[in-house]
Amino acid sequence: MRLSSGWTILLYLLLHGGATVCTVKKLGSNPGRFANATLVRLAEFLSAGYKKGVRPVKDWRTSTIVAIDLMVYSILNVDEKNQVLTTYVWYRQSWTDEFLVWNPEDFDEVKQLSMPTANVWVPDILINEFVDVGKSPDIPYVYVTHEGLVQNYKPIQVVTACTLNIYNFPFDVQKCSLTFQSWLHTIDDINITLMRSPEKLRDDKSVFMNQGEWELLHILSNYKIFSVDNDDYYAEMKFHVVIRRRPLFYTVNLLLPSIFLMVMDIVGFYLPPDSGERVSFKITLLLGYSVFLIIVSDTLPATAIGTPLI
């Protein structure tokens, strides 16, 4: 009887322990809510061993080609006094990451995935004419295709220095430059190209808001390779934003009053010299010219090369 009871207890422990082990193994192999999440499996596959601080090429002699594109959304401000241009642009850049490649057949035919920008390598392409930090929304994701193409699209408020030619004010046309280049990498590491043809870039006004003071004429592009010390060569892409001022506001508020003052000045010569009204009339016109000069001088820069025609 005692032996039977001992065998019974031993059999119970073996069965209970085996069931516990099976339960643990079953729970350990079940990923829970991520059981059938293809995007989670793909994200883990791409992030395994990925080094975002290293340029994503298998052969270090291969240069990473970054294709960029620019679309002007709005001309926010043109500060003639301080020679500063503030624009809101849609900036796009794409490059090939050789370490972010997968076979779509292994991941339910997923051919595109959004990943956090902080987890992938991003080229250090900046605008040389930056004079202030713009208020731009933070876009925390980039799109990655199964071939390794990374697409980084974001809007930027650009505050840049621009040499303004105000000789023909208010009938002036300005051309401001936005120069994109890698701040550190030479052309052997990072090269820059256009995402679209220069002809399509030049005439694209599809997203431009055409209700402000300035009108967008076209955007010109120019690729250049330069060297600072004749040793290391860098690639840069320069966009020339050509804008034209709408002169209606200044015509009504500046030119028409000025023409009226000139006409009244000519009429003043027909007043009799012996009348006492001629001197006071001329003094009033001189006061009007002084106010006109103060208004124009507050608008135009003090360090302009040459004198405005107005």
UniProtKB/TrEMBL annotation:
Signal peptide: 1-19
InterPro entries named among the record's database cross-references: 5HT3_rcpt_A, LGIC_TM_5-HT3, Neur_chan_lig-bd, Neur_chan_lig-bd_sf, Neur_channel, Neuro-gated_channel_TM_sf, Neuro_actylchol_rec, Neurotrans-gated_channel_TM
Organism of this sequence: Ataeniobius toweri
Cell compartment(s), UniProt: Postsynaptic cell membrane
Principal subcellular localization: membrane
Keywords of the record: Cell membrane, Ion channel, Ion transport, Ligand-gated ion channel, Membrane, Postsynaptic cell membrane, Receptor, Signal, Synapse, Transmembrane, Transmembrane helix, Transport
Superkingdom per UniProt: Eukaryota
UniProt topology in membrane: Multi-pass membrane protein
Gene that specifies this protein: HTR3A
Transmembrane feature ranges: 248-271, 283-305
Pfam families hit by this protein: Neur_chan_LBD, Neur_chan_memb
Domain Neurotransmitter-gated ion-channel transmembrane, residue spans: 254-310
Neurotransmitter-gated ion-channel ligand-binding domain mapped to chain residues: 41-247
Keyword Transmembrane: yes
Role, per record: Forms serotonin (5-hydroxytryptamine/5-HT3)-activated cation-selective channel complexes, which when activated cause fast, depolarizing responses in neurons.
Catalytically driven reaction(s): K(+)(in) = K(+)(out); Ca(2+)(in) = Ca(2+)(out); Na(+)(in) = Na(+)(out)
Protein name: 5-hydroxytryptamine receptor 3A
Cross-referenced CDD domains: LGIC_TM_5-HT3
Family: Belongs to the ligand-gated ion channel (TC 1.A.9) family.
